[in-house]
Automatic annotation (TrEMBL):
Chief localization: membrane
Pfam families cross-referenced by the UniProt entry: Cation_efflux, ZT_dimer
Upper classification of the organism: Bacteria, Bacillati, Actinomycetota, Actinomycetes, Micrococcales
InterPro entries: Cation_efflux (IPR002524), Cation_efflux_CTD (IPR027470), Cation_efflux_CTD_sf (IPR036837), Cation_efflux_TM (IPR058533), Cation_efflux_TMD_sf (IPR027469), CDF/SLC30A (IPR050681)
Assigned keywords, A-Z: Ion transport, Membrane, Transmembrane, Transmembrane helix, Transport
Protein name: Cation transporter
Gene Ontology molecular functions: zinc ion transmembrane transporter activity
Membrane topology: Multi-pass membrane protein
UniProt similarity note: Belongs to the cation diffusion facilitator (CDF) transporter (TC 2.A.4) family. SLC30A subfamily.
Residues covered by the Cation efflux protein cytoplasmic domain: 216-290
Transmembrane segments: 21-41, 53-71, 83-107, 119-143, 155-177, 183-201
Residue ranges annotated for the Cation efflux protein transmembrane domain, each copy included: 21-212
Length: 301
């Protein structure tokens, strides 16, 4: 059986994402405290809400960092794939947190329609603008890693949600400062909540697909089977499985029946090449079976 268990690239990739996560975590945690202080000082429920939203960012970023650190330091030989699934669990936990925050924002927004708070606009505006700057910096720091890692993508989505929350607070502050129209605050709250929910659902669904070992969405099992059957010397394919270990690490296993007279090593090489080049599956375990005699041989690629 040809199995690829090269952990090095995934570990180095996780470590590469660690530095921007640490910077984003530090910035977000610091300004979360600032927003809580100013929010309670001015009585601004909008600012306190945004600070609470930032608090979920801090938790999410902290879990993302912990997942990378623990996964990269795993040396237990019994964990043949390391602790890469911690990344996926962290992303799912982030999704649950985001669902909670979005629900709280919607409930709080409804409450404010009946009792709109009176908040001074200028202190709210200054703090919201500073918070927006912090979120923009964190968002840009995590943008590259979000394309490669589901874990970082979860943190990136949380920062995006908070960035939009800061924009909403800025808008509310400007309206409050210039017009005194207090209903702008719950309206902005509803908009933020409705923006967060669908994106959170997509993130959680992706994490659940990995945990349930569903084939990656971009890989059609029927197409993989047809591609393997097209390899010269392959008579049949059965027990075909494709799943994701963690972001950027797809795996496959299959039994390939080799035609009588065909060279098994050549067939095995061809099967691995198809999986690698057409479907970007570099970790594959393929068992070759003789078509005529039914004997099985394990080949290592």
């Amino acid at each position: 059986m040809g199995a690829g268990h090269a952990h090095g690239p995934a570990v180095s990739s996780g470590r590469r994402h660690l530095r921007p996560l640490v910077i984003a975590f530090s910035l977000t945690a610091t300004f979360m405290v600032v927003e809580f202080v100013v929010g309670f000082w001015t009585g601004s429920l909008a600012l306190i809400s945004d600070a609470a939203h930032m608090g979920t960012d801090v938790i999410g970023l902290g879990m993302a960092m912990a997942a990378i650190l623990v996964a990269s330091r795993s040396t237990d030989p019994q964990r043949t794939y390391g602790l890469y699934r911690l990344e996926v669990l962290a992303a799912l936990a982030n999704g649950v947190l985001l669902f909670g925050v979005a629900g709280w924002v919607l409930v709080e927004a409804v409450r404010r329609f009946s009792e709109p708070p009176e908040v001074p606009g200028l202190p709210l505006l200054v703090t919201a603008v500073l918070g927006l700057v912090v979120n923009v910096i964190s968002f840009r720091l995590l943008a590259a890693g979000a394309k490669e890692s589901l874990n970082v993508r979860g943190a990136h989505l949380e920062v995006l949600g908070d960035l939009l929350g800061s924009v909403g607070v800025v808008v509310a502050a400007v309206v409050l400062w210039t017009t005194g129209w207090s209903y702008v605050d719950p309206l902005v709250g509803v908009a933020i909540g409705l923006f967060i929910l669908p994106r959170t659902w997509r993130l959680s669904r992706q994490a659940l697909r990995i945990l349930l070992e569903v084939a990656p969405p971009e890989v059609e099992i029927a197409q993989v089977r047809d591609a393997l059957l097209a390899v010269p010397g392959v008579a049949a394919v059965h027990d075909l499985h494709v799943w994701t270990i963690t972001s950027g690490m797809d795996s496959a296993s299959a039994h390939v029946v080799v035609e009588a007279g065909a060279d098994r090593d050549t067939v095995l090489t061809g099967v691995h090449a198809v999986l690698r080049e057409r479907f970007e599956v570099t970790h594959a375990t393929i068992q070759c079976e003789a078509e005529r005699f039914g004997d099985e041989e394990a080949h290592h690629a």
